[in-house]
Amino acid sequence: VAGLGNYGLWGTRHSVGMEVLDRLARQLEVADSWRVDKRCCADVTLAAAHGLELVLLKPRRFMNLNGLSIASAAEIYSLGPGDIYLVHDDLDKALGKVAIKLGGSARGHNGVQSCISAMHSNEMTRLRIGIGRP
């Protein structure tokens, strides 16, 4: 599960994917386990939920390069595009509205496009968090 955003720009709407991962880590009681993984240039923690092993990942890159971290982590953890869930902001959804998208185009989202390019696939599932337009 990868939270897309601009690392270090906490509290901005475009980094809502990383904020969702922070909340998920707290709920799964692994928030104190985040570590920097230089192999994929990301903060990573491992968790278990409902019998599944999860890799939670927050890229330490700008949004338009998030895919490089995702692709590296996929290789390290032997994951395919269908195993990856991207959590990201969506300007076209009202603030706070949520939707799941199974594959498809990036719809103009630079972070998602970066993931599609780096993974050579558009099969990642996306959790789109509405941030509305300014």
Automatic annotation (TrEMBL):
One Gene Ontology MF term: peptidyl-tRNA hydrolase activity
Keyword annotations: Hydrolase, RNA-binding, tRNA-binding
CDD domains: PTH (cd00462)
Domain of life: Eukaryota
InterPro entries found in the cross-reference section: Pept_tRNA_hydro, Pept_tRNA_hydro_sf
One Pfam assignment: Pept_tRNA_hydro
Leader sequence residues: none
Residue ranges crossing the lipid bilayer per the database entry: none
NCBIfam families registered for this protein in UniProt: pth
PANTHER family xrefs: PEPTIDYL-TRNA HYDROLASE
The protein, known as: PTH hydrolase
Organism name: Catharus fuscescens
Lineage: Eukaryota, Metazoa, Chordata, Craniata, Vertebrata
UniProt gene name: Ptrh1
